[in-house]
Amino acid sequence: MPSEEDQVMVSIESKNMDRPDESRTPEKTRMDVVHLGDATVARYTLQPGWRWSDCLKPLVGTDSCQAAHLGFVISGRIHIKADDGAETDLGAGDTYRLEPGHDAWVVGDEPLLGLEFESETAETFAKA
What we know:
Elements: H1 4-7, E1 22-24, E2 29-36, E3 39-46, H2 52-55, H3 57-60, E4 69-75, E5 77-82, E6 87-91, E7 95-98, E8 102-106, E9 112-116, H4 119-124
Antiparallel strand pairs: 1-2, 2-3, 3-9, 4-7, 4-9, 5-6, 5-8
């Protein structure tokens, strides 16, 4: 029979993104990551001039980003170009789901601020 201690489950877990479990800072990139149980959430800031193929490709060594993304843009703009030729711009208030195989770059002079909810991607994106 399980002990009373084994049966206790946390019903609420909360963390503040200003005190992340880890931060990653490749060129023109900042990823703040929190772990909540088996989920991972990342807040990213991409500076003007950021481009995946310039700033992260050298770290991961693939021709295009091979991560899936599920996220929300808080502010700024980004252009996404998929390997299959599809393209779009995302801005404040947009939610998105991206399949692996794309490049992306910040549009304009404002940093892009967003959240990533795809746990595997949030766990590994921008990690050397």
